[in-house]
Structures are given as C-alpha cells and as structure tokens.
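Table S7 (text form). Paired inputs.
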Amino acid sequence: MLQEAGPPLTYFPAGMVVGAGSESYKTLRYLVARLPVIIAPASLRNASQPIAAADAVAYPVGALEKEATVGREIEIGGLDRLSYGEKLDWLAIALGRAPPPADPRTRSHPRLSSLWIGLVTPVDAGVARPLIESDAVPTGVRDEGGMALFPEIEPVGFDQALRRALEEGAEAGGGRTAAQ
C-alpha cells in the first residue's frame, strides 16, 4: 500500500461535497429537477454532514503548513447535519421549487435506486450506486480535534454551500435550469 511504501499520509474523509462539479451535488440537483416524487431507500433518513467544496479543499491546503497534521486522519464536515431527504428539500427551495415528496409507503433497495437514477438523470448508475450506498450509514465528524487544528477555516452551512454551487454552475454556463 501507498502508506507503507511512502511518506506519512494525511486523510480527510468527508461526507457529501457540495460544489458545482461534485457528483453528489449534481445527482441531488437532477433528482430535484426531474422527479415528481422520490422513491428511495430507507437511508433517505440517515444524517450526514455535507461540506462546501471550497472548505473541503481548504483543509488539505492548510495542512501543508501544519506539522501536527502529518500522518493523521482528519474528519471534515460543514456546519449542518442533514438527512438526504432534507438535502433534497433545501436544494428544491434554493431552486425555487416545491420539495419533491418522498413516498413513505415505498422503499427501494440501493441498487434499484441507482438504476432509477441512471434512467431518469444523466448520472451513470455506476456512479449513483456508491453515492446512494454511502448514505446507508449516518456519517459526520465524530472527532472534531482534527478540524480544531484549522481555526482559520470556518466551514459554511449547507444553505451557503448550495448558493455557492448554484453560482458556480451559472458562471460555468449551466445556469439555474441546467438540470431541468
């Protein structure tokens, strides 16, 4: 393994990264734009701690100048802990849409959900499945000691991360209707 053969490595595990180019964000956006109702696995209710793309990049860049970060795992996340369903709702509101209802009577298997996403969005099912499966377990920063090494970084909340992603998408020519 790389860790055994090379210099000490520092890891920055994160939940959903929210940025215009993030597959997680694009999948979420396509779902909000294209589905009238969400049929999802029970993991729709699991909470995670999404982080803005700029914040996710700031930590490893900042670590280059901090000896205390060498050879560590530093969990990173944004300010909010939200379920996938809540993230769908927040994005719908940011796009000026009504949140798509999640049908509580129906629950699908992650594999079926990924195939469905591949069918109704341009997101490849092979990409969608790991994203869906990653929501099968609630995630978030369990040890904030690593993030505490970076007092200069103030992660933003999910709403601000969404606004940034929408602005980045518009600047890149995607506009607010790119996923619609």
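Next pair, protein 2 of 2.
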Amino acid sequence: MTKSEVYLVSADDRGEGSRRCLKYFPLPDYSGKTVLVKPNFNSADPPPGSTHNDTLDVLLGAVKEANAQRIILGERSGPAEVEEVFRQKGIGALCEKHGAEFVPFSALSDEDWVVIEQPGLHWQGGLKVARAVTEAGAVVATCCLKTHGFGGVFSSALKLAVGITPKNFNLLHNTKDQRKMIAEINLAYAPDLVIVDAVEVFTDGGPMEGVRNRANLMLAGSDRVALDAVGLAILKYLGSNAAIMDTPIFKQEQIARAVELGLGAASPEEIQIVTDDERSGVVVEKIKAILNNG
C-alpha cells in the first residue's frame, strides 16, 4: 500500500521550518510553467490568522529557484478585501522581490471564473473557481492550522481552497453542507506541495482570532487529507474544543467528504508521518498514537 507522507518538523522559526520542509519535499523544475502560489490571507491578522511573511518569502523564493516562467500569488480574502490585506501585510514588497504577480480573485471578471462540473456536488448554482488556479501549470500552497468558529470546525489544507471561490458568505456559511462544500472545492486542483504552519494554532475560535496555543511544528506534503488528519491530531494533542475532541478524525465532514471524492488518504493506515530530528521524533510518536486512535 502506497502511503501519503506528511513531513513534520519542530520549528519556532517559520523561515527555517519552511526551508526544512522544502528540503524534504523539493519542488520540481517549473521551466516554462505558470505556478500559482496560494497563501492563507483570510485577513491580515497575525498567524495563525494569516500566513506569516517569512513562510511566504521562502515559498516564493523556492518557486522562483525552480525556474517558474510566471509566478502568480492569488487569493481572495473575507470579510476583509484582499487588496487591503496585502497592503497591511506588506506583500507587495515580497512579490517584487521574487517577481511574482498578485492576482486578487475578488476583482476577477465573469470570464475569469470556471465552473467545476461533477454530479453530487452541494454547491447550489455550481462550484465556481478562479480560472488562474485551474489553468496554472502547478499550484503550491501554505496555510495555518486552526479551529474555525463559523461552521468549518477546523481550517487547514482543505479549507485553504475557499479562497479560490467568489466571495459569497451566504452561500457557504448558511447551509448545513458547508463542510462538504469546503472539501468539494479541492476538486479544482492538486497541489505539488502544501506547507502547514502549526507553530502557533487556534485551539478554539478562529479563523481570525481565537485561543492561542503553541505547537512549534510545521508540516509539509501534497495530500491535503493526510495533512488535515495530522493537523487534527495535533489539535487533539494540544486540547481543543468539543467539535475537535469529540469527533473521530476521519468522521469530520471535511475529511469524510474529501475521502469520498478520492482527494487523499482514506484512513490513518494510509498516512506515514516522517521527520528528521530527535526532537520532532518524540512528538511524532504522540501524534501517531492520536491519529491511529481517531
């Protein structure tokens, strides 16, 4: 059985942690390709409210070093406007440094959206996603691990995809199918790499503000289900709210629907957590035990 690898590293410095993640999961040669980089910029709040600039700096630099012909930094924030989030976080300087082009998805015209067609989706009126994502030669992403106080339960690699859809809070948040819909967005792309910032997480509240707890960990992998399953195990390890603690990991609706869609690992047995240092190894054994027990 082929297992999905999740690389786990102990880190309190996000730049160094990201570099170690990229050593284990090096990017392929992107010569001639457009690469879309997707951050977690729901707002400009400090991590885990949004992606740390050090993480994004390393990731953009790695894409540039992989010879990408064009780098697009694409995102849609909410409730804040993404242009204001970028201004507050000083992302323009990072884009200039690495030759990246900022594409605010909230400003796209009608023809810049595509509809994902598949029977059984829960998106009334169709699942629209940014054409820049579906037409990119590759996607790399980074997100923050946290609980989600507006119906998502948790936010990590799968939830990151919400930022590639049009801004419509009523459509997503006023339905019992929200968590299934979150999983379904991920049909639009398959990332080469996702780096998950779990240096500091929300164990309750979120996504912009919440109860903070330090895990001093970073994760990397390409299987979003496996990454989220390990992330949930970390939240359980730290002690989180009832929605996290009282629900088995693979019973969480985001995870369960993603498994139905074939988006990643279907059980703990299909996930391999790996690390390269003794400090991380101690944590890995504890996380593994929680993951295997649900």
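The mean pLDDT is 95.
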